[in-house]
TrEMBL record:
Keyword Magnesium (UniProt): no
Region (Disordered): 318-349
Stated name of the protein: Uncharacterized protein
Domain Peptidase S9 prolyl oligopeptidase catalytic: 361-461
Domain BD-FAE-like: 98-207
Compositionally biased residues, Acidic residues: 318-337
Secretion signal, residue range per the UniProt entry: 1-24
InterPro entries, A to Z: AB_hydrolase_fold, BD-FAE-like_dom, GDXG_lipolytic_enzyme, Peptidase_S9_cat
Keywords: Hydrolase, Signal
Keyword Hydrolase: yes
Amino acid sequence: MFRSLVKSLAILATLSVAIPYTSAFVCNFIGGWPQTKNRFRRAFNPRKVYSLNYALLQKLMIALRYAPLYFQWRRFYKKAGPHIVVKDIPYGRNDKMLDIYFPYSHSSNEKASYPVVLFVYGGAWGSGDKDMYGLLCHNVSNKLNVIVCCPNLSIYPQGYVDDMIQDVVDSVSWTFDNIRSLGGNRNKIMLVGHSSGAHLCAMTVLELLHDELVQTGSSQKEPVLARSLRFEEQHFTGRHASGDNSRQEKLDTLEVSSASSGSFCVVNDTDEKGAASTDFNNAASMFEVLNLQNNGEHEAVEVDTTAGGVLLKSDGCLEEGHEEQEEREEEDDDDNDSVVTVQRKGSDPPPTLTDLCKCIKAVIGLAGVYNIADHFIHESGRGLEDISSMARAMYGQEHFDRFSPAYIVKNLSRSVSLPKFVLLHGTEDYVVPLTSTTKFGDALTDIFADVSVRIIPMCDHYELCLDLMDSKRKYYDSVMEVLLDTTKRVFN
């Protein structure tokens, strides 16, 4: 009896070590080993190994929980007809596809001009596909009575973060050019992003504001404009070499980022900078906690982000008149100062960056990542920082700040015609901490931007987005109500 007990304990102890370390080996083999001197020692640090296994167990539980929903969205997307969705429309310089979803009223009211929601999915910059979000886009389209555009992205390792931002800009540009022929209003666009998709939406808006930031450079804390990021022509064609060689080639051309936005310069397809907007909206900030009730409804409790518990409002001001922008020197025919550009076919002149930015009336971020350095620390606590695609997609830790919206916004001393921001987060989110949203909300408030932060109690990272796929799910009404309220505010 005693011998059997000892044998059982020995087997259990062996398995408690063998299984976690085997899982850690497989994850690092697939995702990549730490890029440090003692990479194996770091990869097999006991604390890191068991933290990683706990994160894998959480992922497995999520997969089991949403398995029925997986079959629902697969079946829906396969059977959806052209009156519901037009699939696989090519767009952009990276040769990607997008889907367009129509509300039911679209077929009976062809002369209507519907607002447009552009949904950018998450996936840690390294996974995800537009096909997965057909149910979500369909529900949003009908509930909000809008046309929904869902683009595919150049996720890592196919592309890097600048490629993904380029994809979002290209999808906005495609919408601006083509949506009228599909019954949409190109001057009423709202960006909605989840997790890393929320990060890409925020970065897109900040980059489209480049012209205005240049012309109002004196209002920034860092007014001197440095040279922008530069990449080889393969970035613009979407053709990347395989392996680390592609990354090294792009890093070899990496220059100091543009201080105008904190990340990189944006120009249009003709190498011209568009006219900057000179409209400053009255700024407002609101922090709200959504209280769920038994009937599925919620009420908003306003909480002051500083101390007073009242709605904070501040008026933005604008100095009239700007100095004429200096012409940019061309250094080499093969180089392009732009990472994000606007590409347009045909003889019509391309829209300016300001044109595209003005058509974006609001940005809704669902559990977004807004400070890359902070999120890297959070991933480290979960043992995921080395196998996650985030650091690699951002070109390494030395470039985290230039791709962090929260950091970029802090370098602006006042609002620069930003659209309305609505930031949602759940209190039970262990994937992206709640502080990611609250800190970004504070940064936007500091420059008098129009921002609302809404907290949903007991909601986790996945429920905030995936519950929009089924009206019977717990947080469908809470999240959809925020989307509906924002739509009414910005489009009416």
